[in-house]
Amino acid sequence: MMIYNPNIKNPTKQKVQGNFYSLSLPTTILDLMIHTNSFAQSAQKYLARNFAQNYEFAQSLLRPIKDAIRFFFVHPGGTQWVLDNSKNLRVSPLTIHVCEPALTVV
Amino acid sequence: MTDYCGQLALPIDFSVEFEDPARMYQHCLPQVFRYMNSVTDTESEILALHNNSRPRTTDMWETVHIESATGAYDHEKDILQRVGFNTVITAEELGEVGKLGDFDTPLGYYDERGLEHFWKYVDNTINRVPKNRMYLGWMSTTTHTPFRIPSEWNGRKSYVWTNGEWDSVDNWMNAVRWTDDKVKEIILGFRERGLENETLFLMYFTLLEPELTKVTEIMDSHSQDNGQHLSRILTTKPIAFL
Question: Which chain B residue's Cα is nearest to A8?
Fold first, then answer.
């Protein structure tokens, strides 16, 4: 994938090397548009961020790597899971709120 | 579906991915941009939306997909509409609107002909008031078999030694070169219209890595079943950068 706009400066012609899924395209595009203030209204920016974070395999080329073991359904309602070490994915870390009350019981 | 929706093709016979038992399980980018038309920060527009009194008028998004290939193969046009594009223009529409007659290639028309309509669409859209934002996709099919390029193109040359055996590889490389020229032409076209700064150009070529390793095999067999050898250019406008 190549991204071009005159305002994006890359004088050293640096390439991002990595093993990325093409499935990351929608999330990356939304992240990029949020990052560049391409949405005129905050409501639209909020909506874009929500979509970007909630794609299945929501890896984006722009998000920082957060080490975590994560589980995905292969497809919704299915029985097969994918275990991922997050090295190749760039999404917000999964938070498991269910565990929190049990940890705070004294 | 990979590019627009972030999901792989569903394992459904005849590619009817929008009917039961198939289920497109997440939103595609054109749908996201359409949803954006229903949210706003502007107080008067919030009230208008709430009362259904009038549609929004500011920062609206249009979603358009244009290609010069047929949209009838494998329900492609149906899928693109289901993916969320408001407007889908394929060879059938080009033939009807432009009175182009028979297809130039087994796929549809030369991309050159499709681009004429691409610019007409862009010019009509940017001259409209109010000026909407646009999520515009152009898909080239010149790099798809049978790699046919208009004869008036003078950039053709031989990239590989050929005695007939490698003609298909040579044709494919010329098709890639032709597409490079068109990318330049598209960017310059936006520059002439004063839209280059406010447009984000995304270019990708959907030749998958496993296919690259056996590209000659694909080219020689002229098979159309080994993946989509298509170039896509997505543009959005106007777009502001930091």
Answer: B241
End-to-end, the C-alpha distance of chain B in Å comes to 30
Q: Does B45 touch chain A (CB under 8 A)?
A: no
B218 falls in which pLDDT band (50, 70, 90)?
very low
pLDDT tens per residue, range B104-113: 999 899 999 9
CB contact under 8 A, B29 and A30: yes
Q: How many CB atoms lie within 10 A of CB B195?
A: 17
Chain-chain contact of B6 with A58 (C-beta, under 8 angstroms): yes
Residue of A nearest to B201 (CA): A4
For residue B2, the distance in angstroms to the closest alpha carbon of chain A comes to 5
Give the number of other CB atoms < 10 A from CB of residue B172. Answer: 25
Angle between helices B91-98 and B111-126 (to 10 degrees): 70
Give the A:B interface size as CB pairs under 8 Å. 113
Round to whole Å and give the CA distance between A87 and A35. Answer: 22
B6 touches chain A (CB under 8 A): yes
Kindly report, residue by residue over B112-168, the tens digit of the pLDDT.
Answer: 999 999 999 999 988 888 788 888 989 888 888 888 898 889 998 888 776 766 677
Q: Does B201 touch chain A (CB under 8 A)?
A: yes
Task: Provide, as residue numbers in chain B, all residues whose Cβ is less than 8 Å from the Cβ of A23.
Answer: 2, 6-8
- Are A33 and B238 in contact by the 8 Å Cβ rule? The answer is no
- Token pair, residue A34, equals 């949020």
Residues in chain B within 8 Å Cβ distance of A51? 27, 32
Helices (H), B84-214: 91-98, 111-126, 167-192, 209-212
Q: What pLDDT is stored for residue B228 in this prediction? A: 36
Report the DSSP pairing between strands A81-84 and A70-73: antiparallel
Please tell me the predicted confidence (pLDDT) of residue B237. Answer: 36
Residue A93 DSSP symbol? P
Q: Is B194 helix (H, G, I), strand (E, B) or coil?
A: coil
Q: Which residue ranges of chain A lie beneath pLDDT 50? A: 88-106
Could you tell me the pTM of the whole model? 0.76
